[in-house]
Amino acid sequence: xxxxxxxxxxxxxxxxxxxxxxxxxxxVLAMFxxxxxxxxxxxxxxxITVVTPDDAVAVAAEELDAGVVPEPVDTVGAGSxxxxxxxALAHAAAHVRANGATDLVALQADLPALTTAELSDAIAAxxxxxxxxxxxxxxxxxxxxxxxxHPAHNGLSRSAAMRSRTVDLAPAFGHDSARKHLDSGxxxxxxxxxGLRLDVDTPDDLELxxxxxVGPQTRSNLEMFGWTASLENDRS
Length: 236
Ligand SMILES: Nc1nc2c(ncn2[C@@H]2O[C@H](COP(=O)(O)OP(=O)(O)OP(=O)(O)O)[C@@H](O)[C@H]2O)c(=O)[nH]1
Ligand SMILES: C=C(OP(=O)(O)O)C(=O)O
Description:
By secondary structure, the chain is α/β, with parallel strands linked by helices. It has helices at 21-40, 55-63, 81-98, 116-124, 158-165, 177-183, 203-212, 216-224, 227-235; strands at 2-4, 49-52, 67-70, 104-107, 130-135, 142-148, 187-188.
């Protein structure tokens, strides 16, 4: 499993209205921790690799027993943030495949309401020998992208077999990525996975995730920042 996280100082700018910079960075880390904790419970997830330029994210990843791949240098000057994100994921994919991984999933880092059961269920629905994805709850973005290799066949040399079996991740995250993944041949997975489909970008997403039920790190940070109390006040 691959997870990309950009520099915390630049993260979640769309939450800037509700959270000061230091709080926002802490919240991004908390959502990341809850996402990794839920993901690592899925029995199909053999390892988690985080690609990031941020030292604090790398430390948090290591504390959660995830591997860390430094941000590739060629992403500097790679144009838009999304181009950098996709280069970072492709770099991490090459890294884990060089170390023996076959089936890949690129998971968003901001899924605080993710449950192990729904991720496990989604992985079980992925076709072999193909790319597939779980769209976000609005069917605009992508919560998770999967690339499963073709099953092994006999009669080829080991290297030829590896080449012919490989299904590239070909990540196309960013604006309208559900459409981009569909248009590039990835299959949209069907299933009721509300936490998996809810990546948090805006205050409205955060409120929705909170109502579904967020993980303990996210919850305690939101309580500490007084955000949950303000939610109650807004409702009364
Ligand atoms: N390693 C890495 N991860 C990235 C990069 N750009 C984005 N990401 C990650 O990809 C996911 C989606 O990123 P964005 O939607 O662009 O940014 P965001 O921080 O979620 O939100 P905004 O600042 O509000 O756009 C987040 O988990 C980011 O941390 C990058 O250049 N490198
Ligand atoms: C990059 C993506 O996520 P976000 O919604 O965080 O921009 C995406 O969905 O492809």
